[in-house]
Amino acid sequence: MHSEITVSTRRKQEVVDITRQVAEAVSRSEVGEGMCTVFVAHATAAVVINESADPNLCDDLLDALGRLVPEGVWRHDRIDDNGAAHIKAAILGPSETIPVRDGRLLLGAWQAIMLVDLDGPRRRRVVVTVR
Ligand code: ZN
Fold first, then answer.
1. Burial 90-113 (b: 16+ CB within 10 A, else e)
2. CA of 10 to the centre of ligand 1 (A)
3. What count of other Cβ atoms lies within 10 Å of the Cβ of residue 120?
């Protein structure tokens, strides 16, 4: 079963915890045992699994990516000035897959599913597939 989550971001770069919405999609799917794939359908956003309890860690992730990938030096910047956002999104990747057991996501205690917008603010479409 596919369902879709829409996330409206407010900043240029933002990490948004979408664990609750994904868990609701898994619950609605009525799949007991299986896999859940969370996929963002954009070239300048990513999906990661990590800790969201400490908001500093989300900022640290964005800072680390900023140190790895400078702004304004890419060929693609001549087209729409967001080459760095594309490269950061490619490093993180557009999807994560989580096992499902007893109709619940098998996440670790400190794991959360997060959308990372690298060229916001925008409306981002996240596709959740459970089977
Ligand atoms: Zn672009």
1. eebebebebebeebebebeeebbb
2. 19
3. 20
Three-class DSSP category at 42: coil
Are 30 and 102 within 8 A, CB to CB?
no
> Against a cut of 0.90, is the pTM above it?
yes
Q: How far apart are CA 79 and CA 60, in angstroms?
A: 29
**Residue 1 predicted with pLDDT over 90:** no
φ, ψ dihedrals at 103, nearest 5°: 70, 15
Distance of CA 74 from the midpoint of ligand 1 (Å): 10
CA of 109 to the centre of ligand 1 (A): 36
Alpha helices in 1-131 (DSSP H): 19-29, 55-68, 77-80, 83-92
- Show the tokens assigned to 125: 């479409």
What span, in angstroms and rounded, lies between the C-alpha atoms of 124 and 9?
8
How many residues are given for the chain? 131
